[in-house]
Specification:
Blueprint lengths: L5 E2 L11 E2 L2 E5 L3 E5 L6 E6 L3 E8 L2 E6 L5 E5 L3 E2 L13 H6 L18 H10 L9 H7 L2 E2 L11 E4 L2 E5 L4 E6 L4 E6 H11 L6 E4 L3
Length: 214
């Protein structure tokens, strides 16, 4: 919902001056950014064939939410079509293989593997390859995915490690794959190095470690 309009599914739960029924549309380009406002900051990305639930169109911009994760934002209306489109090339149905698919891809805030990818986009896309629907942002992923590990439990491949504003996935007990602004790309590096940088920038390095049943 926004100040002047809400999905009719929220009627009776939240007041809005106006309600609209979401109409499913599809991404007709290879990828298109989702923005927090028209001409604003990119917050996510819709990929070829993915669904966008359209609630409003104005000035060439569509407002609604991505069907796969309910992420709300604005999208160029000319990138949408009412006709079902082919889905983008699927990733290998293996969690680590899917994550490795994005190695060396440029880091782009809000990216999900089109023009680039960010840390939570890497986790979301990799988990989707094995049938796990993950939230879009790292804070939501930290709250929703897997089970928390005690500090004395050794890490293993596919465990997720959450930092302030960041997330990565273990490829083995010592190394992390992540999309990082620091290097501007997706890479594998020692977890100890990532923790060291996080400790320099934040009061807390690792927030939580979570295990996915993969």
């Amino acid at each position: 919902m926004r100040g002047d309009l809400a999905d009719v599914a929220l009627a009776g739960k939240h007041f809005s001056p106006h309600y609209a029924r979401a109409v499913e549309h599809f991404c007709s380009t290879l990828h298109v950014p989702i923005f927090d406002r028209p001409e604003g900051r990119q917050v996510s990305e819709l990929l070829a064939g993915e669904s966008f639930m359209l609630l409003d169109v104005s000035g060439g911009w569509g407002w609604g939410y991505c069907k796969h994760d309910h992420y709300v934002g604005y999208i160029r209306a000319d990138a949408l079509t009412a006709d079902m489109q082919p889905i983008a090339e699927p990733l290998p149905p293996d969690l680590l293989a899917a994550a490795r698919h994005f190695l060396d891809m440029p880091y782009v805030w809000g990216g999900r593997g089109g023009a680039g990818i960010d840390c939570s986009g890497l986790v979301q896309r990799s988990l989707a390859a094995i049938g796990i629907a993950a939230p879009r942002d790292s804070d939501m992923q930290m709250a929703a995915l897997g089970v928390a590990l005690a500090d004395d439990v050794p890490l293993r491949a596919c465990d997720l490690v959450f930092f302030p504003g960041h997330v990565g996935m273990m490829v083995d007990p010592a190394n992390l794959i992540h999309a990082t602004m620091h290097f501007g790309r997706t890479l594998i590096e020692p977890l100890a190095d990532v923790i060291g940088r996080s400790d320099e920038d934040h009061d807390s390095g690792v927030l939580v470690r979570r295990r996915i049943d993969s």
